[in-house]
Amino acid sequence: MERNKGKRSNKGKIVIYQCCSFALTIAIISIIGLIIPLRPKESVSEKRKLAEFPKLTYESLKSGDFFDGFNDWYSDSYPGREKIVAINSKIKSYYGIKSAINIHGDVQKGDDIPDKYDPNADADITESAVSEENYDEISANGDSQSIGAVFVVGNRAFEYYNFSRPQANKYISSMNTLAEKLSGKAKVYDMIVPTSIGITLPDAYMGHINSSDQSKAIDYINSGLESGIIKVPIFKTLMQHRSEYIYFNTDHHWTQLGAYYAYCEFANAAGITAQPLDKYEKVTFEGFRGTFYNDTGKIPELKSNPDTIYAYKPNSSATMFYTDSKGNKISWPIINDVSKYPESVKYSCFIAGDNPYTEIHNPQITDGSSIMVVKESFANSLVPFLVENYENIYIIDYRHYSGSVSKVVLEKNIDTVLYINNVSAIRNEKLMKELQATL
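^ thats the sequence. predicted structure below, dont judge the formating
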């Protein structure tokens, strides 16, 4: 009996020792990550700027925003994060091929999408819980696999989309607030871009995967926008061209051809003339492997199918400069030569990628026409087409800008404002907060 007690006592000590050792290891790693000064500011694989250290103010401490921002900064800029993310993706890639689409944990089931927006129903909705629903098995010759939030069919990848009604309502509220601020001062246009899974996913998979109906989601959002906001409908247009190369195979963005079809729809809505595509100088950048390729651990299926970027240069002598996060004003080509850039960042050929503030001026147009584009990265490939229609183009990326859109519009007497967001961005709570903060 005494001998067994001794064994149990020793086991208990070992468990306590192991727990303490684990806690100490985590603490040491955390402290090391905090004190090392060489913290990354950009993610090459994700093609985005990482969170910055938050400003310490009484209000930010009181609201808790400082601690949320500190957490984002710490996790985003931890030394070696890029390699850690790559290793994690690589491990996930060994999970194996799955012909059955059955997602638990990595992808949430989207909220039900009402036919119309009802502001009185806002208080009754909460964020979606993780889906526990089993989706129909797809046996398309076993050529599909699901890795995290990415669905791979053959050698093409798509991102799951789950509709978030709370975030859609925040977007609706933000757009209506902006329209009210600019009433009588500028026309506000709204373009919501579907992602590839809503357009070019093969029909055999439609309705069988854990992805919300993007057409219905866009209709819901549009139904809540006040009548003064001009909606630019592009879903049906892109569907008509779905057999063309309008989305990348290894990246979440659309190609500039897809953006061109959307530009034509905006031109129609705004009463301007769209420049024919064959009037542009076409340049080619090969060997682009984007976000899906990195997110899936660079699987062979996507490695063997790199994308080609076909970029269309404006014919005018327009000039562009952007202001970076430090306030530096930098001149840059509207379409930059990225032929020697790393394979994962070639999409940055369009308007220097994502920057807080950008201006483009076309000296060949002298009518004083101006447009403000408020955007995330999907708009980057569309903006060059606007150069032939406006003397002045002002671009704000609300994810990185700390000022007020409406203030800039009024100060510069801008008469047209175009919001461009992919539908997936409108389900993201952080992005919707950032968009709201720039009104």
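The two ends are 73 Å apart (CA to CA).
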